[in-house]
Amino acid sequence: MPKFTVQNLANCKVAVEQGQTLLKALQAGDIDWMHACGGKGRCTSCRVIVLQGMQNTGPLTASEIKYRNNGRLRANERLTCQCILETGDIVGEVPEQTKLPHLTYTN
């Protein structure tokens, strides 16, 4: 089963089931993650900076394309509420702007 590792969250590893978004996998693993719009792809608060494994993700969704086109989602970022792992693992980190105050992040 593919794994999502969050490097700046103590290398937290979450199993991602087939067809499951990264956000759903995080929630299933009881990992708090910012998602202001409720996981509907209407904002960018759930984004993740992808450090490794971008090639293992599914295609960009319409929401992600919209945010890429208007400069709110960089080429190395995905929305966890939209991103699905197709094969292999992914390593990412929480952007500074969306870190939650009650969690401890590492460098």
Automatic annotation (TrEMBL):
Listed Pfam families: Fer2
Source organism superkingdom: Bacteria
InterPro entries reported for this sequence: 2Fe-2S_ferredoxin-like_sf (IPR036010), 2Fe-2S_ferredoxin-type (IPR001041), Adrenodoxin-like (IPR001055), Beta-grasp_dom_sf (IPR012675)
Cofactor(s) listed in the protein's UniProt record: [2Fe-2S] cluster
Keyword tags: 2Fe-2S, Iron, Iron-sulfur, Metal-binding
2Fe-2S ferredoxin-type domain mapped to chain residues: 1-98
The UniProt record lists the keyword GTP-binding: no
Similarity section: Belongs to the adrenodoxin/putidaredoxin family.
Protein name: 2Fe-2S iron-sulfur cluster-binding protein
Species in which this protein is naturally found: Pontibacter silvestris
